[in-house]
Amino acid sequence: MKNFDELKSAWKKETPPAALQYEEAKKRADHYRSSHVRKRLLSIGMLSAVIVVFVLILLNYEAKYITTPLGLLLAGVAIVCAIGWETVLIQFLMKPIDMQADSKTFLTYWQTYQKRVEWAQKTGISLYFILLSLGLSLYLFEFANRDWRYGVFFYLVTGAWILFNWFYFRPRVIKKQNQKTRALMEDAERLASQLEE
Amino acid sequence: MTFEEIYREYAAKIYRLCMAYVNDRDMAQDLTQDTFATVWEKLATFRNESAIGTWVYRIATNKCLRSLEQTTRIKRTELPPQLSEPPEAAHGEEMITRLYQCIAGLEEVERIIISLELEEVPQAEIATIVGISEGNVRIKIHRIKNKLEKKLKEYEEF
User: Does the ipTM surpass 0.90?
Assistant: First the structure.
């Protein structure tokens, strides 16, 4: 290949595969749309199921103290947040990336978006552990109150479990989730630098 | 323009752009289909602020840039080429394979710009697609052509 015109002619010889025939593409576009809707519905369905289960427990359980249903409620909220945080809440709270923007603007959006995702993941996980720990502590109050020895035992075990989660599991989960986000941010930064004048 | 008209006009062009970006036929096919899934989804909201071609190319380039989300790193085919050339490549396909391999050795944004240039998209439109000035596009194209020429020469000499 000696000149650019030769390159152009070689370039145009690359033909798309049969799967890119219009009819196939149309089918895929329809499938894409319906699977997107299905995924959303599934997440919403799961969330609703968890909420229904907790409401039923709250309605049917006769507790001696208000702390018991309150604890259950907090733990329920924590689980709902854990299921729905990424699939529903983050997407609901954040403006989606504009795929129709020019590359430079898109990469800026993308970096901001990843930064927000990183923050949301960190906050979401911390919130999950706080709510779950608080919920569990309140829930145990009624049982711990029956006998002070049980109380000390329950709270020691629960306290140790909470501390272990907070200082061991939480940072690990955050690190794992943020690893991908961070790699994407670095990529976006590298790509943006390629567009500099 | 209807979706079908847009598809028939741009599918092959977008496929080549994606192919140059990822140098993998299956991935290029997926990216092309994803691009048109977005075109299909957003067509009703297309506001005619830019030409339809610019709009479709923008979606495709952003899909390519975002493909890093699916694969942590896009496969980059570096020279020497004989190590990465598919053994089944027919003689007529050799030139195309060689060209795409050389393009795959460029930086990501360079791959996009040269693909648009090879597709004969006017430089002013390329500037609108990637979001840089026309002057910068001209300089970049000049540099990319030199790089590509050098890569092809190395390939031929090998």
Answer: no
Contact residues of A toward B, CB < 8 A? 1, 4, 7-8, 10-17, 19-20, 22, 25-26, 28-29, 32-33, 97, 99-107, 110, 183-184, 187, 191, 194-195, 197
Q: How far apart are alpha carbons B104 and B19 in whole angstroms?
A: 9
CB under 8 Å to B30, separation ≥6 — which residues? none
CA A62 to chain CA centroid, nearest Å: 34
Give the chain B residue whose CA is nearest to the CA of A5: B118
DSSP string, A30-90: HHHHHHHHHHHHHHHHHHHHHHHHHHHHHHH---SSTHHHHHHHHHHHHHHHHHHIIIIIH
A-chain CB neighbours of B108 within 8 Å are 191, 194
User: Cα A168 to the chain's mean position, in Å?
Assistant: 20
Asked if the model's pLDDT at residue A54 lies above 80, the reply is: no
pLDDT of residue B85: 42
Residue B113: band (very low, low, confident or very high) from pLDDT cuts 50, 70, 90: very high
DSSP type of residue B77: -
Q: Does B120 touch chain A (CB under 8 A)?
A: yes
Count the neighbouring beta carbons within 10 Å of the beta carbon of residue B33: 24
- Return the closest-CA partner of residue A195 out of B65, B53, B22, B14: B65
Q: What element of type H or E holds B148? A: helix B134-157
Residue B107 contacts residue A194 (beta carbons within 8 Å)? yes
pTM passes above 0.90: no
Burial of A24 by CB count in 10 Å (0-12 exposed, 13-18 middle, 19+ buried)? middle
